Amino acid sequence: MSQEAKIGYSVGRSIHFDYTSRLNRSNYEQNIKPYLCKWNNGHEYTGRERNPAHVKLYMCDNGDDFKSLKWLYMGSHNLSKQAWGGGSGFGSWQNINEYQVSSYELGILITPENDKDTLKPVFCSDFSSEKYPVRMPLYLPPTRYSPTDMPWSKNISYGDVKDSLGCSYNI
């Protein structure tokens, strides 16, 4: 939750999710929540658990509960039309021969040299004897959102719940 971050509730300032909208909440419950994982699983393994980063990580487990990875993609982009682009035009008037990109983001795909090798997650160390080490900012395997977990929303009051700086967030 945002209140556990080192900078408290202000860590969520750039998140524009409105959980008070029934449409957004329904879309979230059906299409987004099943894929969300927590940045912090409640333990300090990497030293970054209380510092959620803007980085987006997409990784493919190798079938061994994240002890190794087939590939890892890391970027700064959001999952949005603004970040990835889309057909130009509006509604049914879209030109399928044109693609509009609103912003530019950077990402990197990390893969081993061949299909027989795998990437090995490394925590709290810049050195490893592994052939393809990948320094991870969070502990694996990721912890999925529980049924009671909610995404941060600046449109919701959090009552008496204090953040790491002793502040509450109420609108």
From TrEMBL:
Membrane-spanning parts: none
Alphabetized, the UniProt keywords read: DNA damage, DNA repair, Exonuclease, Hydrolase, Nuclease, Nucleus
Q: Does the keyword Hydrolase apply?
A: yes
Q: Name one GO cellular component term.
A: nucleus
Compartments where located: Nucleus
Lipid biosynthesis among keywords = no
Q: Where along the chain is substrate bound?
A: 56
What the entry lists under InterPro entries is as follows:
Tdp1
Q: What is its main location?
A: nucleus
| An annotated Gene Ontology molecular function | exonuclease activity
- One Pfam family named in its UniProt record: Tyr-DNA_phospho
- Which terms does the UniProt entry file under GO BP? DNA repair
Q: What residues make up the catalytic site?
A: 54
**Positions marked as site (Interaction with DNA):** 80
PANTHER family for this protein = TYROSYL-DNA PHOSPHODIESTERASE 1
Q: What's the family? A: Belongs to the tyrosyl-DNA phosphodiesterase family.
Stated name of the protein: Phospholipase D/nuclease
* Naturally occurring in which organism (per UniProt): Candida tenuis (strain ATCC 10573 / BCRC 21748 / CBS 615 / JCM 9827 / NBRC 10315 / NRRL Y-1498 / VKM Y-70) (Yeast)
